[in-house]
Amino acid sequence: MRAAVWELANQLGVVAATPGELLSAALLTDARRTVRVELPSPHPRDVTGLVDSLRTLGHLRVELGTRPSPAAGAARPAPFDLRDPAAVCAAGPLGVTAAYEAMADGDDHGGLRPAWLRAGQSLIRDQEPAARALVLLAALTDGADPRTRDTLKELAAGADWSVRWSRARGDASAPWPGPVAALTTGGGRLLMADRLGTVRSLGAPGEGTPDRVTPGGPRVKALAALTDGRSGDPTLLLLDERGRLHVRGAPAPRLVTAVATTLERHPGTSLAVTAGAVVVGDRTGSVHAFGPQGLHQEAPHSGRVTALAAVDAPAPLVYSGGTDGTVRAWSPGGPALRDPIARRPYPVVALHAAPTPTGPAVAVAWNDGLVALHRPGPGRRDGAARHFRPGPPVRALAVLPDGSLVVGTDEALVCLRPR
Q: The whole model's pTM is what?
């Protein structure tokens, strides 16, 4: 059943692990469209049932087609060692999924089985064994057999990324900080908010172990950190699920108080800060930069602004993502850049940016589970990016000062370094 859900979710452009999640995600799809779903033949009975359920949604017209299914990829018991990372990464993913799902003995196969079942929607896509090894490595918990981890590292040497560190549900040596709702950086630290508004400082950006905790409050949608350029803890700004602004830490500056008052009447949908401004997105596609010199506004999106990021060097630059699938850049007080930084036919769900010596690095995640890191630099063609799919839905991103990327989901926090 898992493979059927993952296959259908990939073709619908959503992330789902269960039939219920698949139907919910498809129901929230805005566009009325016809979707032709092509699955290996013969179709398992549960696949036909799922497609029939999707057809009842009304705004989707689902057509079921077939494609050839190579023997190695068929959903049948695997004729290879399911404890061997190299064999698992090279085998047909539908066969691996069927074999792991059919097991009832509780054997985790060196950590491979739970990792595969966690990240399977990414793993069943067509890809090289090195890319599959990277996804499995990022999904391992610290209870996995060290030999499994070492082998996956060797297999993933040819991938676009290396795993710098990870923290996951089930880890014992580094307790899981909880489902990630928002990430940012501030005061030289990586900051993480969970769904209930508890903010954890994860030490230096190169570490993944919580060392400070700010108690919870409202359910959080976005997190930003105001720093005054001096040492000490940043002032935390949290946007709750109702679009209201909350302040933790030092007393709120007058500007922040004014923005919070405004959002009481006109709720925001996303949040970011620069050295001199608080930036808020709204449901109509507009971005508002509240600064000492007044209010600057731009309307870069059709539909809700779902994510914001900002950098200060050499001048303030705001990045926005929306339900229209685009990421655009804008300097408050100036015109928005004509061409988008990125565009895909799926809503943007997370965004973060950080300055580098050659220009800002921008990370973006879309609703279908894809993460992209755009890095400027000599010899890189416009729009070149590193891509990663963790498997579960991406909730938040953070670009660290050294260029590493932190990806947050409901089950893991993973730090990747681009090669």
A: 0.89
